[in-house]
Amino acid sequence: MSFFKKLFSNKQESTEKVPTEVFTKDYFNERYTEENLKENPEVFEGNLRLLKGYFIDMKAEKPVDSSINHPKNLDETFEHVVTFRMYCNGFQLEDKMVAFVLSTAFSDFLINKYGFKLYRDKQPEYPLRFLTLKYNKNGVVLSLYPYEYATKVMNLQASFNDLENQIKDKLEVMPDYEKFIDDLTKEV
Questions:
Q1: For the chain, what percent of residues have pLDDT higher than 90?
Q2: What long-range pairs does 48-52 form, CB within 8 A, spacing at least 24?
Q3: Among candidates 63, 144, 89, which has minimal Cα distance to 152?
Q4: Residue 68: partners with Cβ closer than 8 Å, 6 or more residues away
Q5: Are 125 and 21 in contact (CB under 8 A)?
Q6: Nearest CA to 109 among 139, 78, 150?
Q7: Which residues pair with 121 in a beta bridge?
Q8: Model's pTM, two decimal places?
């Protein structure tokens, strides 16, 4: 399995240069545990209700009516004088809980729309990367870190909609596993 380094960098790189590592299935299974967001439905539904409550209490319009956890809706919660972070802090929710709410909502969106899977990383490289979303296309894996990204959105350094657009672009150009392995063995 390959993981992409600098996947969302601003530099344009050819897809042949993006894969940086190959992992065995055994290594993957030792390091990652699949998570089910809806395993505890009270927590998951509570997170979505908190987002719905924000729109109701702030009298804010949702850009997309179909789902509360659409990236445009999540971004909208940071476009007002009282942000979602401030709203949650008013209920004595700490920032790490606010990031958890946003990351689970966004993760659910990507799982349902694109087929990502959520994993807990037993050996994260950085503390905010304990959760990772992975999209597997015949052994080639696209990875992202929803909790870490949610903290960037909370600090107004990123947007969920921009990330979704980057994901769409990357999914279209993901390399073919067989070609990647063939090219890799030719280099050796």
A1: 74
A2: 48/105, 50/88, 50/101, 51/77, 51/84, 51/101, 51/105
A3: 144
A4: 48, 51, 52, 55, 62, 105
A5: no
A6: 150
A7: 32
A8: 0.83
What is the distance between the terminal CA atoms of the chain, rounded to a whole angstrom? 18
| Dist. CA 179–CA 188, nearest whole Å | 15
Q: Which amino acid belongs to residue 5? A: K
pLDDT in tens, 147-167: 999 999 999 999 999 999 999
- Residue 18 has a pLDDT of 52
CA 22, chain centre distance (Å) = 21
Beta strands at 32-34 and 19-22: parallel, antiparallel or unpaired:
unpaired
Choose between 141 and 22: higher pLDDT.
141
Structure-token match 């392995």, residue found = 181
Mean pLDDT lowest among 13-22, 46-55, 105-114, 116-125 = 13-22
Residues 6+ apart with CB under 8 A from 69: 48, 51, 105, 106, 108, 109
Contact between 7 and 170 under an 8 Å Cβ cutoff? The reply is: yes
Task: Give SS3 for 21.
Answer: strand
- What 3-state class would DSSP assign to 77? coil
